[in-house]
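Researcher: Quick test of sequence recovery. Tokens follow.
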């Protein structure tokens, strides 16, 4: 066999083996996401600009609080501190609020995020003045300087669902206010709480 014939034979063998090699290529497991699904998943789980906005809360703060037990009545005033940090790779901000409320030690825990799929800001709140967890959803405007959220809570006096509306306004890099509204005795919305916070 000449060198040319040998080369031709080897080439034919290589070509014949290609289909077999292709069949040996590992296949994706059944039910595995395709490229489009993976891209959607990555887009949904990747922190973005909105997560940078909520991260402004990270750090240590002091706050003053005024709470109205009834319209027209003088507010109860108290002070406290906030410590906030990002969690889960910058996807959420977790904050611990501590102070006093109605002459008793107060502690509240807040978790803020932005849902890339629902395209809305989300948060949860729990504290030692109750046993429920309030969930709120909302939007921000003016590059995140003003955020309005609304959530449902249980009224301890009536045992029935009620609502709470929160308006957070960033008055500077190191200061913000948080106004809370809910239904008054006549059912009309009234201001129930105002928090003024400053970075330590």
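Model:
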């Amino acid at each position: 066999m000449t060198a040319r014939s040998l080369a031709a034979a080897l080439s034919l063998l290589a070509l014949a083996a290609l289909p077999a090699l292709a069949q040996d290529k590992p296949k994706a497991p059944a039910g595995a996401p395709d490229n489009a699904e993976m891209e959607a998943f990555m887009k949904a789980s990747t922190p973005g600009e909105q997560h940078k906005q909520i991260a402004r809360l990270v750090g240590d703060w002091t706050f003053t609080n005024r709470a109205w037990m009834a319209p027209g009545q003088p507010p109860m005033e108290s002070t406290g501190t906030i410590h906030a940090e990002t969690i889960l790779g910058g996807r959420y901000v977790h904050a611990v609020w501590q102070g006093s409320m109605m002459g008793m030690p107060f502690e509240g825990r807040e978790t803020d995020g932005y849902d890339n799929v629902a395209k809305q800001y989300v948060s949860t709140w729990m504290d030692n003045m109750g046993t429920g967890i309030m969930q709120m959803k909302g939007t921000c405007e003016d590059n995140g300087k003003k955020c309005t959220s609304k959530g449902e809570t249980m009224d301890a006096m009536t045992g029935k669902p009620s609502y709470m509306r929160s308006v957070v306004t960033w008055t500077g890099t190191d200061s913000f206010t948080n106004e809370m509204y809910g239904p008054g005795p006549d059912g009309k919305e009234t201001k129930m709480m105002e928090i003024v916070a400053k970075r330590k």
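Residues 1-22 have pLDDT under 50 and may be disordered.
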